[in-house]
Amino acid sequence: MKKVVSLAEKREEIYFKRKEGEFKSYLGKLKIGELRHEANYIIERMKDENLDDEFLLKGAMLMEELANRVNEQSMSEQISTFADNLKSKVDDSPLLH
Questions:
Q1: φ and ψ at 47, to 5 degrees?
Q2: Could you tell me which of 84, 70, 76 has the C-alpha nearest to residue 39?
Q3: Residue 59 lies in a domain
Q4: Is residue 28 a part of any domain in this protein?
Q5: Domain, as residue range, for 53
Q6: What is the per-residue pLDDT across 20-75, written as a single tens digit (0 to 9) for each?
């Protein structure tokens, strides 16, 4: 028995594969600092309830790209940056001195 293929579904699949390729190319051109900035944005948005599938998929691709590029030194720098950002949100506390 032959499988019937919807032309509309095939067009949509081709469209999404092309868009995915374009986005991966875009990610490949970003510097590590830019990737981290985008990752931070995605992490901040994760508390939103109305995230669409496109945002989630692009976020996953971005995180995968970042994971592929990160090393111990850049991870250490990122963690230090997060710590500094957390400290900066605290009012002038004597505990931080």
A1: -80, -15
A2: 70
A3: yes
A4: no
A5: 33-67
A6: 999 999 999 999 889 989 998 998 898 888 999 889 999 999 999 999 988 888 88
